[in-house]
Design brief:
single chain, 265 residues, alpha/beta, Rossmann fold, 10 helices, 20% strand
Length: 265
């Protein structure tokens, strides 16, 4: 059976989690759900870190401490303001479990748990890829590293599925996070970061889609409306994109600007 990787991508507040839930609830055959493989979500890892920690056996990987720190150091998430030594000072490793010192659990002001969770999620993606495991992950898609892992997976013979969801304008995303998600006790994101990530995510869309087996595109601009899948392609045996027959008039402006406009005529 082919190795598969599913990537659920789009700016903060676009509705990735809702699409994942909808897909998980849909039968691909009678009584059969889509197999996501191992699912990685940095938000879920952050929550685990505030409780019992991150259990590596849950992700079916073989944990090797030296390899773990090698992957972490090369992640691009270790920087001058958060060095490898600082990262090591924020975690505790025991057997196959990564936990946080009590002080970071009791005082979450610096959001150390979120930063560590992002690094652990990056490690898990790369480790699962090394071990040829089937897996899925959710990402804001604001860093070129997410495109790199798509390219690496494709080069290793994976069938990569991209599910990309966005809105017409980052102001929609800001509203949903600030006025809806936070009121429902979801995690907050600074407004500037939401806007910056929106445009970085959109800029990476085209390159990512050129390196996948199938891609599904959703618009979630309408408040209270359902996600609209307006386009989908699948590669044929010759590696050519075969698109569903949809009227281009229904394509949202963001797709025209960040995908269609980049197609070489």
């Amino acid at each position: 059976m082919s190795k598969r990787m599913r990537v659920f991508a789009g700016p903060n507040g676009s509705g990735k989690s809702s699409i994942i839930k909808k897909i998980l609830d849909t039968d691909v055959q009678k009584g059969v759900k889509l197999d996501f493989g191992i699912y990685i979500n940095a938000d879920d890892i952050a929550k685990d870190l505030l409780k019992k920690g991150c259990l590596f056996p849950k992700y079916t990987i073989t944990f090797i401490e030296d390899e773990f720190f090698e992957i972490v150091e090369a992640s691009g998430l270790i920087k001058d303001d958060f060095t490898l030594d600082q990262f090591k000072g924020c975690i505790e490793l025991s057997d196959d479990r990564l936990t946080l010192p009590r002080k970071f659990i009791e005082n979450q002001e610096d959001k150390v748990h979120e930063r560590v969770a992002q690094i652990v999620a990056d490690y898990l993606r790369k480790k699962l890829l090394l071990e040829d495991k089937k897996f899925s992950f959710e990402t804001v898609f604001s860093h070129v590293g997410k495109v790199d892992i798509i390219k690496q997976a494709t080069a290793k013979g994976y069938k990569v599925y991209l599910y990309f969801v966005s809105t017409e304008h980052p102001s929609i995303n800001v509203y949903r996070i600030k006025k809806v998600r936070v009121k429902q006790k979801g995690h907050d994101v600074p407004e500037k970061k939401i806007i910056d990530r929106y445009y970085r995510s959109m800029d990476l869309l085209y390159d990512a889609a050129q390196n996948v087996y199938q891609s599904y595109f959703f618009d979630n601009s309408k408040e209270g409306g359902d996600h609209t899948m307006f386009a989908h392609f699948k590669l044929n045996p010759d590696g050519e994109k075969v698109w569903d027959e949809n009227d281009p008039k229904i394509f949202p402006e963001w797709f025209k600007a960040y995908y269609s406009a980049k197609i070489k005529k």
